[in-house]
Design brief:
alpha+beta; 243 residues; 9 helices; 3-stranded antiparallel beta sheet
């Protein structure tokens, strides 16, 4: 039987997170220091290992590589993961890596191309923070969802933490998913997520329905993932993200 490490997770990130994250059960934010109690924080916590690759290596060896007619960007990412990714039980390393990934993906230079004049740099910060915490969610190769934290329920979590209304929450969600509708951002996301050992998959539809994203390993069964997600939502429909 696999032993799950439920010790407190503590990480010190390069920039301070919004202290309102402490409104969620099991998480405390003190400037750049984030502490998570897995027993309180997660709705489902069945795995305390993750796959990660060094972000500096991703930057130097993958981000600037262009796909060709013989090698698609997904193949490039998969080969990089096979060569460089390693399993870790250090959740702080996962969060630190995720912070670098999403600082890159949700950087200010994208603001002018989003087509959302009301979307600000502060909104990008919200996305960076939420997506960093989402990196602790996990899907296994067989498609089973092993870890689910509050940020899986993306619009609900951001509304609790940032006091945003439904319209703003939906706008945040749209930009979070926007890589699917903008090829340049999609390619960036595929390459960057190699640092987290896979590709970003979404369980939700075109409107926020509380089925957020997770970085899934290449080869994971998406059929099983879809079925497990449906069962998860059906079995536990009434969730609260506020303590």
């Amino acid at each position: 039987m696999t032993t799950i490490d439920t010790a407190a997770i503590t990480v010190v990130l390069p920039e301070a997170f919004d202290e309102r994250w402490s409104r969620l059960p099991g998480i405390q934010v003190d400037g750049r220091r984030i502490t998570i109690d897995p027993a309180e924080y997660f709705f489902r916590f069945e795995s305390s290992t993750w796959l990660v690759a060094d972000w500096e290596l991703v930057k130097s060896q993958l981000l600037n590589v262009e796909e060709t007619t013989q090698s698609a960007v997904e193949q490039l990412a998969l080969e990089f993961i096979k060569t460089h990714a390693k399993s870790t039980s250090d959740a702080a390393q996962v969060l630190a890596t995720a912070y670098e990934v999403y600082t890159y993906l949700f950087r200010d230079e994208h603001l002018s191309a989003l087509g959302l004049p009301q979307f600000t740099a502060d909104h990008l910060r919200m996305l960076r923070e939420a997506a960093t915490l989402m990196a602790l969610n996990k899907v296994e190769l067989d498609g089973h969802i092993s870890n689910v934290g509050p940020c899986w329920f993306f619009p609900a979590a951001t509304s609790v933490v940032f006091d945003v209304d439904d319209e703003t929450g939906g706008m945040l969600d749209e930009v979070y998913h926007g890589g699917w509708f903008n090829e340049h951002r999609r390619i960036e996301a595929i390459k960057a997520h190699a640092a987290l050992g896979g590709r970003l998959v979404h369980g939700c539809q075109s409107v926020p329905d509380q089925s957020g994203g997770v970085v899934a390993p290449y080869g994971a069964s998406m059929t099983a993932f879809r079925d497990d997600l449906a069962a998860f939502k059906s079995d536990e429909p009434a969730r609260t993200t506020a303590g």
